Structure formats: structure tokens, C-alpha cells
Amino acid sequence: MTRILIVDDDKHIVEALAERFTHQGMDVVTASSGEEAVERLRQERPDVVLLDVQLPRGDGFHVLGRIRELGIETTVVMITAYGTVERAVQAMREGAYDFLQKPFEPALVESVIRRALERSGFVRKDRVQRAQEAPTESIVCEDPAMRSALDQARRAATSNATMLLLGESGTGKEVVARLIHRESPRAREPFVAVNCVALPENLLESELFGHEKGAFTGASSRRIGRVELAEGGTVFLDEIGDISQPFQAKLLRLLQERSFERVGGSEAIRADVRFVAATNRDLAAAVTEKRFREDLYYRLNVIKLTLPPLRSRPSDIVPLANHFLAQYTAEAKRPGLAFSEETVELIRRWRWPGNVRELKNAVERAVVMSPGSDIQPADLPPEMLLTSEGQGRTGSYHDQILDQRKKVLRDALAACGGNQTQAAERLGIQRTYLARLIKELELNAPEA
């Protein structure tokens, strides 16, 4: 909903404007002094501000300066009963979008506000870009269990409820989180992902909430956090099961109160965002073992969705592989590159312990490593060949592994005419490591 802040010490003007804009479906917030206006700006984050120049406790130009200092992205229209060309020019220089002189016609005010809202829309789009929203990734799905999970995600997307996505690493939890955002009423606002284990706790707090200038060593300026950047949109909290208990308490407050404070700050900032969390941990067990807060678990677990591992959705494996093949051959400008029948069978049989992420990486590697028009089994990761070729053989486990290691090296060297540098590149290993393997496995000179 569009939010407008009306700042004027004339209560009759405020009431008249508030009634008009509320009737038009806007969320109206009011303030009667410069001091109160700054407080409302921090808490409400309005799309447009109608700001009187003459105010008690901080005039309109002071408020305009504070908007710039606080880094608040909004569009300001100044209003005054003492309008002159000089004051209009000053307002524009200070960052105002437009200038109205009292008394004003309602139709004129509405026209100016419409243009101001259009300008705010451009600001919001820029904020989305700066939040680095990733491009949409297609979801390839034929398996009934996965289709059911996606149907549930789409149904839940229409609500504002917090969602918890469970599943092994690489099952596509972030892809599903983005689907939920795209299918939600917040789709035109930012989607901001936060990896909760990528940073130490103190840096994670600053990344999520932002910080004030001087909050800690190196904080030379104010920084807007991910939650603030996602205003109106969705925050995806990945790896939520790995955060520390002290930070769990801070996150619980954010979910409960829908507000937060920047690191080093004392002002509560409203968080109009939808939260989607994900983890590969067993959070219920972590709660039992007192490693995860029970109250936070139930706050997150409003709608729970478990994504099946790739090995339990075999009908999706080959279609996914073909999808990634089309993607990477286009990027590499290698049209026509295809899987051989043997490669397709190997892809179908592999259990994919790393799930969709492992399959995606394997296909990317194969596109890079394949020297011909067909992707052969040797172009896939070596561990897939070792397991596949070892099936049905006799002998001890170690003997079979040794034989297969030798075969992988022989095949790579043969395909490269004995050139060890090319063979190492084909296998995705260092040249020096290949030389050491050749020596350890006692491959004869012609093979090497």
C-alpha cells in the first residue's frame, strides 16, 4: 500500500489532506513538528512526504536535510504559505521534488502527488537493483512429490506468513524461495537473500540490520542493512539452523516486533517484509538438544515445506541435466553439444548426494571439458566413473578402486595423445598432481 506522510502544524489542513488520500486507498501518517516528522520517517518509510516549511521544533528545510543524512529514499513535496521563487529554488537544491504554495487547489495537490509517486517508483526500482536481485531460474519438475511441494509453495505465497524450507543441501531451497516471492503480492518489490553462515556473527548483524556511523571500528559511514533494502519485499534467511544463540534472540525480536535497530543506533525501524527461512538441519532435534530456541522455531515454522532430495525424484534427473546442458552450451557458444547414450545412463544411475547443485556443477564441467560434439562419461567428474566402472567387478574393494583410478588416467591420457597437461585439464586436476598419480600408480611409459 502507498504510504504518504503529511507534515504540517495546521491540523485543519492535515485532516483535510488525510481524509482525501485515505479515501484514495493510501496509508496516511501525520506529524505536526520537524522533530516528530523525523521520527515518523525513521519508523514508517513513506513513499511521499508532504512537508510544510514553517514548523515548530525543526523547520521543513531541517527535516529535508535529515532525510538526506539518514539515507531515507522518499520523494518530498514542500508546502508553505510563504512561497517565493527563492524558497522554491532552495527547496529544490536541498532535494525536494516539487513545491506548493498555500492555499492550494485539491486537484493540484493530487496531480503533484501522482507525479511524486511515479518518481518514487523509479527510486524503488533502483533499490531493487542495488539489492542485487538475482535473475529468475527456471524450475524443471516432473516428479509428483516435487510438484506437490511446488503447489504448496504457490498456495502459501499469497499469504504474508513466514515460511520454513527444509531439505538437504542443493535441493533448490533458494530457487523455491524466489518462486514464493514471484507468486506473492510483494513480487514487484526486492527479494534479498542473506546467507546466515557466510559471515561472523558481528558482521552478520551489520549485514542484516545495517549500522550507524562510528558503531564500530571501520564504520566510517551509515550502512543500510538487507532488511531495510528489502522494504515491501521478501528476505530469504538461508542456513538459519547454523546461527548462534545470541543472534537467534535478535532474530526472534525482528520476527515478533517487525522492527529492528541498526548496530550502534537506538531508533526502531519498521520492517515491512516477508520472511522465508531455509536450513538443511533438523531444527526439531536442535530444539530438543537446546541448540536452537524453541520460540524462534515456532516463529519460523508457520508454514513448513520439505523439498525431496534428487535421488528420490529420478524422473527429474535427466530433464534437469538437459536443462543445464542447454544453459551452459549457450553460455559457452557450443550449440549442438549433446550427451552420449552412455553418459545419459550414467547420469540416470548416479545417486547425486549433492542434489541439484551437484548435477548442475557436473554438467557445467562436462561442457567445459568435452573436446568433441558429444559429452562422454570421461567428461563427467572422476568419482562418478570410479563408482560406475566398479559395479559388477570382483576383487577387494581397494583393488577395484585402484584399477578404476588407473583406467581413468589411462583414458584421459589416451584421449589427449599422452599430453599430461591436457589430460590434467580434462580431469580437472593440477598437472603436478597428475604426474604424482602416474608415479604412484606405476603407469608405464607408453601410457604416460
Provide a descriptive summary of the structure in words.
This protein has helices at residues 11-23, 34-44, 60-70, 85-93, 106-130, 144-157, 173-182, 201-209, 226-229, 245-257, 283-288, 294-300, 317-332, 341-349, 355-369, 382-390, 397-415, 420-427, 431-440; strands at residues 3-7, 27-31, 48-52, 75-80, 98-101, 163-166, 191-195, 210-211, 223-224, 234-238, 259-260, 269-270, 274-279, 303-306, 338-339, 374-375. By secondary structure, the chain is α/β, with parallel strands linked by helices. The chain has a five-stranded parallel sheet with strand order 2-1-3-4-5, sandwiched between helices. The chain has a five-stranded parallel sheet with strand order 7-10-13-6-14. The protein has a two-stranded antiparallel sheet with strand order 8-9. Helix 6 packs across helix 7 (173-182), helix 17 (397-415) packs across helix 18 (420-427) and helix 18 (420-427) packs across helix 19. The N and C termini lie far apart (70 Å).
